[in-house]
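Researcher: Let's do a round of design. I'm pasting the structure tokens now; please hold your answer until I've finished.
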């Protein structure tokens, strides 16, 4: 392979980034605004830092699945030490935890000969669990100005995360290209046995590579924590997959022995650019994952077909002349067709959105659309927006603080008339509100109260009161005596904490009932099925279960049914989703604390419309759910139908 083909193979992400950028420049004028381009780089910084460390590991034909968990563990350790002993101590402890975690991974891979996929899959769970245990699921606020400057400060008008990313990339690239360790890394990845026989300590190379990966995960955690203003125990969850994607897109071979830091950096920026562009164009949050998946597939296909990029962009076989007879490089028809197709699609989407450009605009950043409760909230929001002629853009944060922050940052570039925010946590919500305040965009929040910033309005159900209602209903269901279990939501999230605290507070009013088991099922029905089966196995005399949402309650129903315990084990849930109401009506659940998410979505958009029009609104509106038992289901469904909710009770 000649020099051109080798460079093209390493930097293929450049061509993909160029095509995407050209398409977005044509599709929306917002994309090329300097503030938006800087936002893309800030957004890319965390994943890119993780990906740089991952590049060292993947060049060795290994993989590190633990980097997201290491990010959260090191950030939490740093914040807790910083709160007691100051910035320097916290900073050093965070770096030490990250490097130590990487060292553990390296030792497991080299000394136990355990496959890196298995070793780091196990340590991912260990480090994530340690972060939760260390914090007891609670976020830790950061007040050190020096630390916060890492994520929120600027130098020469450019955000500090960008500078940190560039400096780390330069140092990492130099190490790979110009040092003995870099040469040994490539050699080991290309042929580990030949490298060992030539005198290279391959174990030392691998241990050092994993240690660097952990160290950079800690630095990424510092930036994310500084941007949020708080250390979250679940921070970094899922980011390991984005980091691996950036490395692959950037040209590093999964087979080992080949890769470059510059490609990884461009891969990280490309992923951030795709997210940014799709948000600017109001593309469905579900289709956004499809687009990113296709980009990764293309990158892997090119990785498996080495030299294809050279053939595509030069129109000649690899190894042949680099120029056509006229002496000019040419872009073949296939590349032109791909570029035009991408541009055409996004331009059509943009034109479709411009039809409502003159209407009042609102962006809704919702915590998740993987839960029927929030799907119903979104449905109610869309229905009200259509009725009020508001152009509503819905973004799905997937219960990820980082995603919510990045989506809100992109939304502010569009300068909507109002930002509607359902925070993934109160702490991350506060950072978003502060950004919106600085951009002079009014914010209406719902479901969870942000802990910082100035809101125009808040509307939401009282999560603590919801837990108390659940406790009261469960007490009634078991006759005021017996053994019960609690199935909690996602540890570290404010709604899970508040509902659990409310439930435990409420159970104090029912002294004849003992809580014999408490487990988490992450607000997921399938997870709750397994958790409940384990609880029932350990507690055969169980009388009741409180689940912090209806999805988990329905998982408990499935477990109880499989053991023929329906009617013996009483189940209470929370939310009032359609399947839960059906289960209550059928006698499979005792009750649900119904909260009418469709009505919540309607009301929050109605209030947002008033705010966008410049009208005065109530500063705070706290709603209360109502316990719905078997005899109440029909009446509650009539109420929902009257609101226009045609799906919950269908």
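Researcher: That's everything. Go ahead.
Model: Designed sequence:
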């Amino acid at each position: 392979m000649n020099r051109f083909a080798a460079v093209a193979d390493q930097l293929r992400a450049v061509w993909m980034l160029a095509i995407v950028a050209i398409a977005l420049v044509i599709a929306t004028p917002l994309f090329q605004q300097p503030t938006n381009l800087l936002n893309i780089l800030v957004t890319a910084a965390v994943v890119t830092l993780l990906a740089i460390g991952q590049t060292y590991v993947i060049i060795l034909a290994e993989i590190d699945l633990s980097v997201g968990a290491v990010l959260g563990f090191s950030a939490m350790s740093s914040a807790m030490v910083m709160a007691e002993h100051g910035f320097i101590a916290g900073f050093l402890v965070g770096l030490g935890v990250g490097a130590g975690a990487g060292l553990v991974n390296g030792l497991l891979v080299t000394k136990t000969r355990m496959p890196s996929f298995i070793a780091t899959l196990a340590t991912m769970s260990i480090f994530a669990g340690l972060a939760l245990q260390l914090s007891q699921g609670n976020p830790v606020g950061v007040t050190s100005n020096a630390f916060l400057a890492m994520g929120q400060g600027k130098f020469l008008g450019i955000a500090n995360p960008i500078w940190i990313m560039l400096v780390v990339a330069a140092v990492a690239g130099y190490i790979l290209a110009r040092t003995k360790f870099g040469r040994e890394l490539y050699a080991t990845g290309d042929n580990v046995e030949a490298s060992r026989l030539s005198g290279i300590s391959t174990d030392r190379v691998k241990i050092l590579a994993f240690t660097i990966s952990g160290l950079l995960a800690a630095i990424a955690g510092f930036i994310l924590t500084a941007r949020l203003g708080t250390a979250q125990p679940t921070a970094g969850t899922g980011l390991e997959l984005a980091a691996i994607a950036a490395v692959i897109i950037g040209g590093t071979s999964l087979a080992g022995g080949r890769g470059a830091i510059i490609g990884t950096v461009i891969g990280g920026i490309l992923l951030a650019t795709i997210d940014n562009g799709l948000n600017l164009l109001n593309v469905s949050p579900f289709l956004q994952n499809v687009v990113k998946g296709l980009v990764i597939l293309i990158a892997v296909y090119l990785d498996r077909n080495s030299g294809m990029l050279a053939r595509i962009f030069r129109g000649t076989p690899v190894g042949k002349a680099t120029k056509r007879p006229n002496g000019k490089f040419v872009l073949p028809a296939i590349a032109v067709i791909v570029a035009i197709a991408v541009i055409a699609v996004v331009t059509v989407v943009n034109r479709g959105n411009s039809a409502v450009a003159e209407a009042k605009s609102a962006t809704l950043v919702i915590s998740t659309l993987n839960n029927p409760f929030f799907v119903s909230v979104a449905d109610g929001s869309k229905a009200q927006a259509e009725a009020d002629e508001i152009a509503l853009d819905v973004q799905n944060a997937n219960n990820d603080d980082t995603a919510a922050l990045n989506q809100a940052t992109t939304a502010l570039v569009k300068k909507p008339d109002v930002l509607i925010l359902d925070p993934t946590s109160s702490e991350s919500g506060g950072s978003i509100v502060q950004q919106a305040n600085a951009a002079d965009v009014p914010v209406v929040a719902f479901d969870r109260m942000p802990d910082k910033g100035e809101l125009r309005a808040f509307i939401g159900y009282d999560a603590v009161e919801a837990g108390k209602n659940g406790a009261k209903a469960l007490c009634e269901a078991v006759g005021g005596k017996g053994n019960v279990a609690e199935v909690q939501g996602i540890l570290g999230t404010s709604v899970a904490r508040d509902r659990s605290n409310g439930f435990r507070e409420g159970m104090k009013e029912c002294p004849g009932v003992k809580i014999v088991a408490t487990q988490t099922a992450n607000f997921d029905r399938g997870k709750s099925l397994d958790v409940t089966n384990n609880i029932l196995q350990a507690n055969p005399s169980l009388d009741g279960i409180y689940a912090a949402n209806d999805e988990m309650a329905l998982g408990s129903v499935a477990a109880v049914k499989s053991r023929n315990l329906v009617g013996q084990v009483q189940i209470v849930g929370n939310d009032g989703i359609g399947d839960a109401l059906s289960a209550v009506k059928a006698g499979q659940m005792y009750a649900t604390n119904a909260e009418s998410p469709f009505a919540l979505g309607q009301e929050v958009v109605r209030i947002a419309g008033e705010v966008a029009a410049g009208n005065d609104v109530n500063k705070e509106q706290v709603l209360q759910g109502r316990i719905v038992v078997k005899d109440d289901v029909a009446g509650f469904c009539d109420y929902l139908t009257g609101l226009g909710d045609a799906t919950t009770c269908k």
